Amino acid sequence: MAENKISFLQEVLQGLTKKRFAPLDFLGTGSLTERVFSLALGEEPPLMPGMLGCGREWQQLADGLRGFDVSGLRVVALGGGTGLSKIVGGDSRRPEWRETPFSGLKEIFPHLCSIVCVTDDGGSTGEMLKDFPLIGLGDLRHVLLSSVRSSSLKNQYRLDDEKAAETAVILHRLFNCRFNRSPESAEQLWQESGASPEALPVPLAGYLSDLVRRLFTDQRMKTALQRPQCCGNLLIAAAIYGKLPSFFRTTELIANQKRLQSATLEGISDLALAIGAGRQAVLPCTATPAQLQVLYANGVLVTGEAKAGAAERGCPVEQVTVRFSEEPQLPDEAAEQLRRADIIILAPGSLYTSIIPILQVPGLAELIRANNNALKLLVANIWVQQGETDATLDAPEKRFYVSDLIRAYDHNIPGGIQNLFSHVLTLDLADIPGSVLQNYALEKKEPIYVDSERVRELGFEPVQGRIFSQDMLRREHIVQHDPAALASAVRGLWALRTSGFLTTPLPPTVRRSAVIAEHLVNICTDRLLPCIRSEEISRIVGTLAFRQISLLSEQPKDLEVADREQLAAAAAEILWRHADIHPAHLSSVRGISLVSTARWSRSQQWDNVFSFYDPEDGCIKIRQDQAEDISRLEMPLLVGLGQSLLGNYCQEKHLEPVFFRELQAGRIYWLMVREQQELNSFLSLDELDEYLQLAQMARSPKQRRLYARTVNGEEGFMPPGLLFGLFFAWYLDNRFAPNIDYMMSVRKNGPSELVAKQAETVRRQEKLVRFFRERVFRNRIS
């Protein structure tokens, strides 16, 4: 039967291409694939004089493409949460998903498997990581719900269409239920979610009710309930922990990683089967805990997926790596799916935080390359992402193109992009009204432009089409991928390929970027798992003194209990948010003191950066008005913490005038570093020496511990202690310390070739960034 359909499709295509003026020539511009592609997506052929006789053939072709049998194909899609879920079955986080829960790839390709990124650490997933030694669950939750299939629910639970749709709606409510305060019982959680277990099929209701009950009966789950959570994440954790003995707490689980990883895969498979997605419909790319690390062109390395997306570094991404807690393992089930796949799809999504982390799992990219029979597709993103694709290495100010996406993959995937995909599916921006693009521009959202010729030069075939949601465009003026259209597009491409009419890419004619090889596998056993780090931060913050220095009192007083708890919670959250802060960075901090604004302004020793570290009592002093909310507290806390890393390094310091013939020519700032035996600092004496010289302090050739710097005239300057604190905050987040950002502007804009001093400044800045990356945050780049 299938052979007859292929033969029929071949005959129709041959008939439409043999004529002197082939009817397909009138279907617009682009490659043969793109012209036929439009019919597969439901576009009407043009009505032109002399072409009326082709209408029947066109209709036959369209029907053949749309009705091509793909029920037996094995399809593997890879990606992160939003982009992958959208093409699999629609964005299951959105309320409107309940209106059409059964669409996308899952409905056309019954044997669909999604391989999901596990480095998610934002929102509820980040809260989960504070308590569990697990992989990031948020993207898995998102894709699991999107993978629920109508036919599976109907066959598994003997439901009709209406009941299957009702079940999907209930699952949507339960999985997306969020709470800031812990429900008191399983019954209350069900009630708050708006999902009624009585309306579910009895076996499914029983399975989910058991998971919900475990949240309240398993002691290992109780702490997580006290945090802001998404119920779907908790259900996945409950499914995993149900596979583990109750006496296995965090310490035992970390010591038995293989057992934990096995339970992770089993728990996800059981949940996927129960909700009607299929046992192997959704798989993590690895069950090994991992964190994303992004190296920017200015030398700053940021740890954490959510942090990288919000870092606002203002410069291009140079390299992306994944830091694994131990040797990462690709699940056997995922490996088998890739070996047997007929179609492999790299889903759209965050460039640096979805596909690239997956393909850095050892062996995964090699399996894709080794499958020479599969049709391999890359679905390009639609919009530029702030902090990721809004700048490129070769020209930071230019637009971002599809070829830039491809080059970024090539630069960050072990072995490059050879044989990972052949065709690139993109939107044709000509189909989007200019007014809609203008509205997006007002929101500072810019499309990723298609440069077809450049893509072909790289050795890939671009395929442009209307794979966006025309309904969303019409109703809400929103441009996003349409699950049904994209699924139809993939089916159409497979039909063309099987019929021998799919346009194949030519060999690359330009040299692609040099690729990063095996050293991208970053196993970091000397770093704490997020849950252990969170526990350590909470423990240390719990030992700190929280005091207040008022205008009327010379002695600091302890804060009231409620104020203390609020400040402690805010401090712990700030420290947690910056994954590059290690608990060891807090070794010199004994407390946090809030200083009244009036007293701060009277003191000459306290400056206008709103915080400093006092080595005398080991406290970070913060001007009180900066502690009014967490967003204002963050910078002064980080500046003070940065200064604390220097500890009591300075034994003595002075700023003295320098006179020439009774005219003050400037000032000299000098300081004396403490002896080794008296030093209490995060840095060693050698590291202090390196830093002070980078801060433009000259070391005395005769007295090793003496450093000095001349300040011309009345020029201001930044003392090394303040510079360290500000640079510490700037390194962690570019929103902070604008004066440091100003200092780095020469490097950002590029030095003038005519000014030697600028070149020297850039070299010193590069060394200073490297010092902080390697000496302060202990991150080395291979």
UniProtKB/TrEMBL annotation:
Record-level Gene Ontology MF annotations: LPPG:FO 2-phospho-L-lactate transferase activity
UniProt KW Manganese keyword:
no
**Cross-referenced Pfam families, in alphabetical order?**
CofD
Keyword tags:
Cytoplasm
Would the keyword Repressor turn up in this protein's UniProt record?
no
Q: What is this protein called?
A: YvcK family protein
Species of provenance: Candidatus Electronema aureum
The beginning of the lineage is: Bacteria, Pseudomonadati, Thermodesulfobacteriota, Desulfobulbia, Desulfobulbales
